[in-house]
Amino acid sequence: MTAVAPGRAAVVPWAHGGHPADGPGWLPLLPVAVLAVGYLLAAVRDPRGWDHRRTLAWLAGCTVLAVAVGPLAHLSDDPRGHMAQHLLLGMLAPLGLVLGAPVTLLLHVAPTSTRRRVGRLLRARALHLIAHPVTAALLSTGGLALVLLTPLYATAERQPALHHGVHLHYLGAGYLFAWSLAGPDPAPRRPGLAVRVGALLGASAGHAALAKYLYAQAGTLPPGLTDPDAAAFGSAAHLMYYGGDVAELLLAVALFATWYHRSRPPLVNRRFASQHRDAVTRTS
Questions:
Q1: Nearest Cα residue to 85 out of 202, 240, 203, 266
Q2: Which of 48, 98, 247, 254 is at a distance of 20 to 30 A from 179, taking alpha carbons?
Q3: pLDDT per position as a tens digit, 134-167
Q4: Burial status of residue 130 (CB atoms within 10 A of its CB: 0-12, 13-18, 19 or more)
């Protein structure tokens, strides 16, 4: 505790966003390191040989996640820092993590009892509901709207537990949305391409509309702030609009790439078809 003169308020060190500094700055990076190292250890143990491209995607997602909870955490009292965290936690990091196919890797290396439990979880009705593309889009875009259009943003800036809970929601909802659209992991009853594309377009439109509304009402949103900075929130809205476009474009590419990969015939059949065409050409 810092010593102060009588009659003056004590000075409390603040970490960011009005939160007391309650631990070392590297502490949030520890779970990210656990995710990265745990994945690498599992990939090495895979008896079938794990795809290095999946490993790179996972590590890219962990890197983005580390940037969001590391350097950007010190800027989250600035609306632009908060918006950058949203883009990284809720849109970019989840895409890399999803493309790493962690469930498939777990099914490759886990014991039989664990694989059975994972299989039951994948077939559970509750998971089918929350991981449906439309539901996941509402959780992702709708959750962001709830934060920015209600006093929740201002409250989270004063309460560390709620602040971290909002960040966990960004990451979890973003992961569910990316997994429901473009995840290479097994997903029983995943809707067809038309439903997934429609959910992506709807979420993109909602995200863009929210960014425009935030820009237009930058002087009054989010509600509950004692000293809002209209210029900073306008810049944050710009970042949300254009950064969201980039993230959604990457998600669209991943969606169509995953769909194309699954719709192709097996390699043996493709080779047979190619040999058959060559034989027909030679005999004609």
A1: 240
A2: 48
A3: 999 999 999 999 999 999 999 988 898 998 899 9
A4: middle
